[in-house]
Amino acid sequence: MTYRPDAPERLSRAVLRHDVARCAALCAVSTAATAAGLLLPAVLGRTLDRLLAHAPAARWIACCAALVLMISLLEAAAGVLAGVVDARATAWLRRRTTGHVLALGPRAAGRFDAGDLVARLVGSGAQAGTAPGALAALAAALAGPVGGVVALGLIDPWLAAVFLAGAPVLALLLCAFARDTSACVAEYQRVQGRIAGALAEAVDGFRTIRAAGAEEREAARILAPLPELSGAGHRMWRVQGRAAAQAVTVAPLLQLGVVAVAGLLLARHRLSVGEVLAASRYAVLASGVGVLVGQLAALSRAGAATGRLTEVLAVSAPAHGSRRLPPGPGRLELRGVTARRDGRAVLAGVDLTVPGGGTLAVVGRSGTGKSLLAALAGRLTDPDAGEVLLDGVPLHGLAHDDLRRAVAYAFDRPALLGTTVEDALALGLAAPSPARVRAAARAARADAFVRRLPDGYATRCAAAPRSGGESQRLGLARAFARGGRLLILDDALSSLDTVTEHEVADALLAPGGPTRLLIAHRAATAARADAVAWLDGGRVRAVGTHAELWRDAAYRAVFANHEDDEPAAGARDAPATCGNPTADAQRAADAEPTPGAEPSSRTGPTARPGPAAGQDPACVGGAGSLDGAPR
Fold it and tell me: What is the pTM of this model?
């Protein structure tokens, strides 16, 4: 990650350019309101002079009323425009940051906690979105004091000189306030992100917490940074209070000085009563530090929030090429692939080839890099050395759309995102059709239980509880509906019972299908593949058929500790949901392969000993209950 010190300023300028017309209109309206406010004291002074001289003043009184009405209308318009500009800027920042996080994939999860990312998107996004409005308001707020000083000089140069004598003190106060406020706000938002991250972890693991009876301890852990957050908040308010108090002390002295000099000039008949009134009002406008303090505070909060978003955007996303895939069967090649995580080579010099239309199972002990290899094969992440090719084209050279159309994934814990079940199965399809979705569901043996839902495929995901096996079948259906040349399954059959797995495998391995890469923990899954790649210590130890490798005791030991039976009758994971953005985002993070780490648990299966030495692993197991059976 390369972080540039001027990155927050560059992002702020990008926000301004995004809605430059409305920002300019807001600045113009705010400045016009300030200009009308600057005209009002002069008109009031002239009106007072004419009234005291018993001269006709109806026109001047009408001008005063018109200016008051104009100021009210302009301030109302500025308020509406500021709300629109802030909302559009916030939406743009959130879309850009969300898109970048999705483009980063596993890199985002490795760099930021899920809760911290949510806090940045929601809280920091809203704060950063106020920057254009705050900047326009600050410009108008600056126009007030500057215009007030100019007006004092036009009335009499001595009035401006008296005010300017104390102006440097005000400038120093404002500079110190802006600096201290930015530091306090940044610290406050950082601690807030830590609390959000801890809360997201607890929400994801609430069943474990409840089972352990550790609710109070977890609550204490989540809220442990609260005193630090409180301290940062109090410091922020103390800084603002101190600046306001200092400004309140200095500003009245300047105003009194201007009024005193104006009184002397009145006594010498150099000023009229109306001009003294105007000078007193201009002195108030010129010393309007309270408005400046508020706008500087808003701008400081927006700047600190922009900095937090910039930290996310500074993490480089994978770049895509412009090449197109030529016609081909989907031949997958890994040439000298090395991938490091936390300074350790998880995969080292991996060379593998999967012929077009063939099936390769990848097996190995936990931690040998199977899920990382699956991520590399479809470019969810990039290798540190070597390259991955599909039909002779390096994946990093492919256009994004071509790559995503060519590769489909199914995971052990799929994140089913969408409003309805049909939406979840059609996720990412350019032109989804009901017939295509239902055909994919039938192939994944999901059609029957989906039709039993209250509204079938139109059932809202939140109203469709499902077991771990049912979730996996929906994930498989989504992958089947997507099609493509390469299908990658990261232990996506682990929660299916024996009968359902056999039926799904028949559809999966049917002749004429795509190239298949299976990350397998079950011996039965490996036995169905054309060939097996055995990973050991980050390297390919052997490649061959399952029957050939089974003669090696070390290979058999790979399956000894894995849960290799179907889910027991009635066994169910807690109901999963989709449609809840927070839960779905966390499930998506769980489902995506985390480089260097293997899944710590799977949904639903019942553990039992692996096959005995020499026994055909495909024959191990018995007829279990279908996980789609009615509850």
Answer: 0.67
